[in-house]
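Please, does this match?
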Amino acid sequence: MINKTIKNDPEVIASAVEQGILIYTTGSWTVAIAKNDAIKYADKGVHLSSIDSGGFISQLDNEEIILSHGEAKITLENNAANAIIELIHTAENEIWL
């Protein structure tokens, strides 16, 4: 397992495990994303799209990113979204070979 505490956002912790990514937000949500979906989201990166499309969705009216996966929606700061994307790429090379 690889853990990553998001700098400047102590309320978001992400972990990579054999099955995928777990994202914890204190006092709020835990979202599990299967590795194939996580890789797809990371490869698309932060983008403009419908919230329903899944992945890291940029909001034009502010600097927040919505991580959308199924019914789950987590609001992240840009640095947190990028750190989770980096974690997914690391897991792809170190865990999900």
Observations:
- The chain has a mean pLDDT of 86.
